[in-house]
Write a structure and sequence with these properties.
Layout lengths: L5 E6 L1 H8 L4 H12 L3 E6 L2 H6 L6 E5 L8 E6 L5 E5 L8 H4 L9 H16 L11 E5 L15 H11 L4 E5 L7 H13 L3 E5 L2 H7 E6 L3 H7 L5 E3 L10 E2 H4 L1 H10 L4 H11 L2 E2 L5 H11 L5
Helix pairs in contact: 2-13, 5-12
Length: about 300
């Protein structure tokens, strides 16, 4: 027997409020797609317990940024900046459909891609990308849990940071994420490392200023590397992520070769960003957004 044609959206209070007041463009279009297909929908509180319990509901579920807990559930997540979104069967970005597919570099619509890049450079970062240069700085974008080596990472973030002086000349800026909370042990480890390597400076935030002047971005899988593409900056990645295609991946190349290739690389940033965002994500501001939403839900077996 097919599951009932109804769906529960598990949303935090802020997201729920934006949807109910008509201020969440993407989820409003998801609702429009469901209603047009004759589906019923409701909203529930977003909690780990509620998401687990949804497996006992015979209907479907939509989670926001959380791992689906059963085959009738999907997750929705913004693709780094509004209005780009994705609908997936997992919250693990490195397992998303786009991460598994090759970038068709030989099929780029040059005019459309260059126009797209120019528009979004200005929209997101103003004149910053136009001022971009390479001053010899290596920008290391840190995230959380600096001493932990998690399954999707090639090594722990602290070990990643230790690799940088061995493979990069010049100054190194390690930037802590302004929204992360770091333990005293993590901060002490960073302080000890900065004493060992005088070329290393540790700061909090400052992404856009660093992207203007750095030679490359080194990170586990921070969105700073994705933002770096708008500034024409190559990336060395120490962890899995969805935007890996034009980066140098340590898991594939090894540490030394990843740094070597990043230094020599000149990727087609415009072609890649146009493909990754405009062709593979759902642009909630476009007329085809609802058709793309329906297509993605059918991809996961929803009868629309």
């Amino acid at each position: 027997m097919s599951p009932p044609r109804d769906v529960c959206l598990y949303l935090n209070p802020g997201t729920r409020g934006r949807l109910e007041s008509g201020r969440h463009g993407f989820l409003s279009k998801v609702i429009s797609v469901l209603e047009a297909a004759g589906w019923r929908w409701r909203i529930a509180e977003d909690s780990a317990a509620a998401r687990r319990a949804s497996a006992d509901d015979p209907g479907h579920a939509i989670f926001h940024m959380a791992e689906p807990t059963h085959p009738r559930a999907v997750t929705v997540r913004r693709v780094y900046h509004y209005p780009f979104w994705q609908i997936e069967g997992t919250a693990r970005r490195w397992d998303w459909d786009v991460a598994r597919d090759p970038f068709p570099a030989g099929e780029v619509n040059r005019k459309a891609a260059d126009r797209f890049l120019g528009f979004w450079q200005q929209r997101l970062f103003g004149e910053g990308p136009m001022r971009a240069r390479r001053d010899g700085l290596t920008y290391v974008a840190l995230q959380g849990r600096l001493r932990d080596h998690r399954s999707f990472q090639s090594c722990a973030p602290m070990e990643m940071l230790e690799h940088v002086p061995a493979h990069r000349p010049g100054p190194i800026l390690a930037a802590l994420h302004p929204k992360e909370e770091y333990s005293s042990d993590d901060l002490q480890a960073l302080e000890d490392l900065a004493r060992r390597f005088p070329r290393l400076t540790v700061r909090t935030g400052g992404m856009e200023a660093a992207l203007e002047v750095c030679d490359m971005v080194v990170t586990q899988n921070s969105s700073a590397a994705f933002n770096g593409y708008f500034f024409g900056k190559p990336a060395v990645l120490f962890a899995g992520i969805d935007f890996h295609h034009i980066a140098s991946n340590v898991a594939d190349l090894g540490v030394a070769e990843a740094f070597r290739q990043a230094e020599a690389s000149r990727p087609d940033y415009a072609g890649y960003l146009h493909w990754f965002w405009q062709q593979r994500a759902i642009n909630a501001g476009r007329e085809d957004a609802e058709a793309r939403i329906a297509q993605r839900l059918r991809r996961f077996g929803w009868d629309l």
